[in-house]
Amino acid sequence: MKKILVSGCLFGWHxxxxxxxxxxxxxxxxxxxxxxxxxxxxxxxxxxxxxPRPDSQRVGDKVLACTGFDVTAPYEAGAIxxxxxxQENEVAFALMKEDSPSCGSTYIYDGTFTDTKIQxxxxxxxxxxxxxxxxxxxxxxxxxEMLLKEQEK
Length: 153
Description:
Distance between the termini: 11 Å
Strand order of the largest sheet: 2-1-5-8
Radius of gyration: 15 Å
Pfam families: 2-thiour_desulf
Largest sheet: 4 strands, parallel
Order of helices and strands: EHHEHEEHEEEHEH
Number of strands: 8
Number of domains: 1
């Protein structure tokens, strides 16, 4: 049975910067969860950041908190841990939370803290892709379902 790396907030963990979650309630996702396929990860928490924590956004190669504090090091550590978990569990792909400075796969916030999104990827997604893992987001479950079927042939 192929596994899927998944953002902790989609899995149902209260690990977002605001201590919230955004659980994915799609029946396919819930089925994968019931089957034990999902490997949850929160790169921010796994990198040592608390919950709740100040909102952070990518600015070039850095990650800055809304307070101006540079939080690049814990984001990097969490991204490395996400890759380690993906490799250890031989995941088929990762399903990550869009817009996040760690987990965004097509869009992230632009670093101005004005709710402006730009094309880009979070640091964990960047490292996962560099390691050869396909990365999708919660809006791509049709593609995820097809990819899982292909990899299980």
